[in-house]
Design goal:
By secondary structure, this protein is of the alpha/beta class. It has a single domain, classed as 3-Layer(aba) Sandwich (Rossmann fold). It contains 10 helices and 11 strands. Strands 1, 3, 4, 5, 6, 7 and 8 form a 7-stranded mixed β-sheet that branches. Strands 2-11 form a two-stranded antiparallel ribbon. Strand 3, helix 3 and strand 4 form a beta-alpha-beta unit. Helix 3 packs across helix 9. The structure holds flavin mononucleotide.
């Protein structure tokens, strides 16, 4: 596969709004998180962790158009729960207050060579709180279908808009993950353009999420987030 360049995706994305959900309500705000919406897209949201532990409550917040990033967010959340943290996994648009959290994982799907606007806006709007707690960023994209030094560099460039928008927030770590291509979740225009682009690049339809890599990255957050204390 030829590497997907930033410019190519921006060009393709300039005529696209995202997945089908993105067209139901502008900005992908369907208000149907946690349930499949009309397009059959499930935006995962959950809470886990035992309530008898003192201390650390972690937020895993994410933005998505086709649902893939929610699965990644939940896997990160579950990994942190398994080590004793309380974790809320939420779409960014459903997080009203970040101040109760002692650490935050913030992630986004990549559309048009960037985090989604609501994730960038979330980092910017909450940067006064986020700069005081450990924060980790992650993204899902299709460029990493081929994991090479060159595609890693492209994936890193996708983080630039959020780093620029919220410069005071210094992530303790950044995770770069390959996502999924599911044409059934895209509206007809997006599907047509993406199919043609992906054919050109030799990227097949499929779910390429690497759960081992995601879990292993999440485990690396335990130390910077501070191991939770067990009480009682
Ligand atoms: C409209 C659109 C634009 C996209 N633009 C990019 C891009 O610029 N770079 C990239 O690597 N992947 C791009 N992708 C692929 C998505 O980032 C990838 O499929 C991701 O897993 C989608 O996450 P989601 O299901 O949570 O929305 C794009 C996908 C769509 C539908």
């Amino acid at each position: 596969m030829r590497d997907l360049t930033r410019r190519e995706f921006v060009l393709a994305g300039s005529v696209l709004a995202g997945c089908a959900a993105g067209l139901l309500v502008p900005g992908g705000r369907t208000g149907l998180a946690g349930k499949a919406n009309a397009a059959g897209i499930d935006f995962a949201e959950s809470s886990c962790g035992a309530k008898d532990k003192a201390g650390k409550k972690i937020l895993v917040a994410y933005a998505s158009r086709c649902g893939t990033t929610g699965g990644v967010a939940e896997a990160i959340g579950r990994t942190l729960c398994d080590t004793g943290f309380d974790v809320d996994t939420r779409l960014v648009k459903h997080v009203e207050d970040v101040s109760p959290y002692s650490a935050v994982v913030l992630g986004s799907a990549i559309n048009r060579a960037s985090w989604l606007p609501e994730a960038i806006e979330f980092a910017e709007r909450n940067s006064d709180v986020l700069k005081r707690v450990p924060v980790a960023y992650f993204l899902t994209c299709i460029t990493l279908y081929n994991d090479t030094a060159e595609t890693r560099k492209i994936a890193q460039s996708y983080m630039e808009p959020v780093l620029k928008a919220a410069p005071a927030v210094r992530p303790v770590d950044s995770g770069f993950f390959v996502g999924a291509l599911d044409y059934s979740k895209m509206n007809v225009v997006v599907r047509m353009v993406m199919k043609s682009k992906m054919k050109e690049k030799g990227v097949p339809e499929g779910d390429f999420r690497n759960w081992g890599a995601i879990t292993s990255w999440a485990k690396g957050l335990i130390a910077p987030f501070g191991k939770p204390k067990i009480v009682g």
